[in-house]
Automatic annotation (TrEMBL):
Organism: Marinicrinis sediminis
Keyword line: Membrane, Transmembrane, Transmembrane helix
Residue ranges of the TM segments: 89-112
Protein name per UniProt: DUF4342 domain-containing protein
Domain of life: Bacteria
Amino acid sequence: MEGKYYKKNSETIEKLKYDLRYYCNQNNLETQELDHPEKGWVFQLKKSSKITLGISSRAVTVIIQNINDDMVKISTGNIKWASKVTGGLVAIFSPLALIAFPVLVSTCVGLVKQNNMLKQIEQFIENRMTLIDN
C-alpha cells in the first residue's frame, strides 16, 4: 500500500480522524480503528451489501503514520479484498460454474464498488490535507 506525504500539525490530524469518522457515520459504514505503536493510526471502513450476504462487501483501510514533526504519511488501500477475488476465480474454473456464476458476478460488482469507495476516501483526504511534493 503506497502512501502520500502531507504537511501536518496535531489539529489537522485529529480533525481528519474526526471527519473520517463523521463521514463513515453519515454513509452507514462500519468502522474499526487502532492506534498501533509502529504502524500508526489504522482505520478500516466497510460497507456490506445485505442483498449478497456480504459477498460484495466493500472495505478500505487508511493508515496515518507520523514521519516527523512536520510531515505525515497517509496510505489507503483495499487490503482484505483478495479473498473475495480468489473466491471469484474459483467460481470461474469450478465444474459447477453455472451454479457459481452469481458469486462471480457479485465479486466483480463488489470490486468495482470497492474501487469507487477507495477513490472517494482518497479524494476526501486530499480535500483536507496539504500534499507535500516528493
